Amino acid sequence: MTKKYSPKQKKPASAASNTQTSIKPSLYVAVGASAGGLEAIEAFFSGMAPDSGMAFIVIQHLSPDYKSLMVEILSKKTKMKVLRAEEGMPVLPDNVYLIPPKKNLSIFHGKLLLNDQEHVKGTINLPIDIFLRSLAEDQGDKAVAVILSGSGSDGMRGVRAIKEFGGMVMVQSESTAKFDSMPRASLSTGLVDFILPPEEMPERLLSYAKHPFVIKAERSETVISDEDALTRIFAILRDKFKADFTYYKPSTVTRRIERRMSINRIDEIRDYVAYMQNFPGEAGTLFREFLIGVTRFFRDREVFELLKESWLPEILNRSAGKESRFWIAGCSTGEEAYTLAILAKEYMLQSGINRDLKIFATDIDRDAVLFAANGVYPDSIAADVPQELLSKYFYRKQDSYQISRNIREMVVFAQHNLIKDPPFTNIDLISCRNLLIYLQPVLQRKVLEFFNFSLNAQGVLLLGTSETIGEMGDCFESLDHKSKIYRTKGRFKHSLDSHELPQVPGSTYRDLGSRFPVMRRDPHVNDERILERFLEALSADNFPLAVVVNEQMEVLHVFGDTTGYFKLPSGKLSRDISKMAAKDLSIPLSTGIQKVFRKQEALRFSNIKLRDMDALKVVDLRILPLPQKKGQEPLVAVFLEEVARPDILDKTQAIQAYDLSLEAEQRITDLEQELQFTRENLQATVEELETANEELQATNEELLASNEELQSTNEELQSTNEELYSVNSEYQSKIVELSELHNDVDNLLNVSQIGQLLLDENMDIRRFSPKIAEVFNVLGADVGRSLSDISHQLENADPVRIIESVHRQGKLAEHEVRAKDGRWYLMRVVPYSVGPRVFSGTLVSFVDITRMKLGEEALRASEEEYRALFETLPLGVVYHEADGSIISANPAAGRILGLTLDQILGKTSMDPRWNMIREDGSTVAGTHHPAMIALRTGHKEGPVVRGVFHPEKNAHIWLSITAMPLFKPGESTPSQVYATFEDITEKRQAEQDFQTLFREMFNGFSLHEIICDEKGTPVDYRFLAVNPAFERMTGLKAEQVLGKTVLEIMPDTEKFWIEAFGEVALTGKSSKFEQYSSQVGKRFQVTAFRPARNQFACIFAEVMDGEGVDNAVQPTAQAS
């Protein structure tokens, strides 16, 4: 796994000068970028002031095999000093530090540290996350993260760390990023402060750095001192999110408020209150600031190793025969809950045991709970999850990982307020890590009391490494002090009220609860206290037996003595009230409860006789639906009261005398109906599972194909990398060769097949190659003569005038010239340069281009012929470049697609407007269009049938597409691809109509294949196809007959009919006759004909009584 720096691994080198490091940057800005990030980095630093007082550390994904030129490139974009990071280098203001290749960068006490990257198979290196985590831990609220263009999710975890320690986060807007994966991953955390294009970031960053709350050391008192404003902020959050932050630690609350004020450029807290009221979205942002949940899989790995080795086995081993229950309080986005589930599953598999484990994962943040319940995490989790567990309990989903279903089903996620909502009960293990540190001591004690109440005997409590049980030592004992693992000593009652917090004097902030009653009182809480006091005061003398039951018939709460009415059944514990109830009470109780749930009306049965030991008593049964709010579980209350005098009844209530036989009959009817519904639901579920299984198999095949393509792409990239190495080596050797060849120009002139003529500034001949004699009538003795004195063979140009013009203007000139013998030359005249804008003559060359000119003429004629064919071809034809863009299309293509040529040209397969689909309706990704497959594989693709959206018809049309790659000579990679297609929509619709007619035709239809012996005599025939009418008329299902012979289905079939049908199949003569089927007991009028060689088809209709002649009518042959 990728290493993260910790002080124990490496200590920074001591600084050479204390005065050098005495100047501290106002902010430490970490800039993370990957693919497409160079332009964004340049835009960012081009607008950044060189004297901002901030320090900048740039973290990129660099190739380990090439020298980085970032220092040279970035130095041209900023006046700040640009340095490559070195071991122990102090970070100074107004400097830019760049990560070197092959290294991970971290910071400790303001100094940079380097660690070698580890490239282990199956792991990924995340240098941005590594540095951001160390920066957050080292600099706290002075840390700033800037995430720019890049692929993958590197930086996402680092953003969480920056926010956890009070820093600020800026992310490049997705629309401006060349690769938006990294910005999108950071944005998914919901913790980003600014979303801006890179060029707009410097101005906002400078504004943030100059805010009073950022530059002042003493700033928290400004917020705390304004009690009215702070109270209004708490009230807004409580009203909107039902969360009271009054008893959160003042430092936490004020730091979060100050940061939001800094980001929104607000100096006064009263102005910030007004801002929250005018912009409701700000309350949600501040709420998320308070609830920053920094978590990851296997966080603090040594703690989870200890749990796995010691306490998980102990808990699971003692829970045989009953459900084990874990509670992850403050689960954030669910990583820790899934981690515990994975560890428990691993232990059960290794130990060969099976336990019923339920993990409750709760958090007050609804968005975090929904994210956790979805179970999809970025690919950066590969740095936290061991490879064997990653492959075992996760599966790839595009660029993310999805938790496996067997782990997901172990965890129940729910939104839950740890302070106000009732705690879970019968818990074996509670994990609440790094939540108590944000609470005041009084609130910490209340939470720990809840945990003590929730835990079973010997229950285990896991806290964060910075948390302790404080004053709750009488309730918990330490199992491992370092890992903060505790065990409950048992349940104790404490004087602290479980619904109302006391006033805590000692600071202005803590007195807010007493000064502002609205923050302290909750009418709903008072109502609950009154209800509790009322129920405690009731006794069995003035209150009947009452039981609260849910729709699953489970008992949730019992008031009163159940003796004589209920008892625990033997075997596995069940809360089903019908199984607990006495035998004489079970039927009326279950019938009545279901009736109340169904009708939502109160019900009363009277005169129910129960036998208790030897005594007989009469009871009244009342069942009432409990009031229900939106989102609440439906409940009913069951009241049982023994009747002392059955003749005295409340005449005002509707009373129904209980009739056992009537209720039993109704109960049986209800159970039969419920059984029928259950069977139908089971069948539907089976069909859905079969469909889902097929889809999963198809998805698996696609994933396997994608994996093979990725492997192929990786091999191509490796090959390209090797080619680049070769090219680089060739360039370096070329430099040496060119310096050596400079002295050999004379020899080259003599052997060159190009006519070359070197003239001085007076147009006197200095040198020439033998080939020039084809153009000018020169001899060796003509060196030194003026070119104007030499005759030439050109008939359509004056070379002397052309050369004079070049010598005068100092610019190259090229002309195609023709000699008197019909040969063509490319005449190129170049000024002979001896320095910047200093020329000393001209160099004239003549290249024989006769073949090229002839070829151009032939090519022009061929192109005209091709263009005529291209324009008139009825098939649509488009040409794609190697990058996938369309560079040419014929008119038929536009006509078929419903687009103009301008709308087609330039489009790529990645354009979503194609909306290409397969025949099963699934979407075809741009990379899987036939043209893209042909480009990628270098092989012909198709013909394949695909649907493409037609804008004029506002519907999909169906095309038969074939794609063919084109190669340049000597190359194995396609340079272009052309795709041809035709519209088969009408043909496809006709086929579908025929199939529909086949299925819906009234008469029965069957298709058969005749079976002959070695002599060619028909001996049997096989069923190939039948329509629904055949099934309806014969009572035989398609799956019963298809692929089988008639003798397998109807062994008593007479040989006569086999021979009759054989004659139709072998001779082609159709027949019409009546046939009686003893197996189905019906007579049919049959028309038989031959649709194909050795086949016959039958169309038959049932003959009603009185319409036929005989049960055995001979066939009547007719001409086919």
From TrEMBL:
Give every CheB-type methylesterase domain span: 25-212
Describe the location of the PAS domain by residue ranges.
Answer: 862-910, 1013-1050
Keyword annotations for this protein?
Answer: Chemotaxis, Coiled coil, Hydrolase, Methyltransferase, Transferase
Q: Which InterPro entries match?
A: Bact_Chemotaxis_MeTrfase (IPR050903), CheB_C (IPR035909), CheR_C (IPR022642), CheR_MeTrfase (IPR000780), CheR_N (IPR022641), PAS (IPR000014), PAS-like_dom_sf (IPR035965), SAM-dependent_MTases_sf (IPR029063)
Q: What is its EC number?
A: 2.1.1.80, 3.1.1.61
Among CDD domains, the record links this protein to:
CheB-CheR_fusion (cd16434), PAS (cd00130)
Is this entry keyworded Coiled coil?
Answer: yes
Q: Which GO terms describe its biological process?
A: chemotaxis; methylation
* PROSITE patterns per record: CHEB, CHER, PAS
Which Pfam family, giving just one, matches this sequence?
Answer: CheR_N
Q: What is this protein called?
A: MCP methyltransferase/methylesterase, CheR/CheB with PAS/PAC sensor
Q: Which residues cross the membrane?
A: none
- Active-site residues, record numbering mapped to chain: S34, H61, D154
Residue ranges occupied by any CheR-type methyltransferase domain in the UniProt entry: 218-489
One annotated GO molecular function is: protein-glutamate methylesterase activity
Residue ranges that the Swiss-Prot or TrEMBL entry lists as coiled coil: 661-734
Source organism: Desulfomicrobium baculatum (strain DSM 4028 / VKM B-1378 / X)
| One Gene Ontology cellular component | cytoplasm
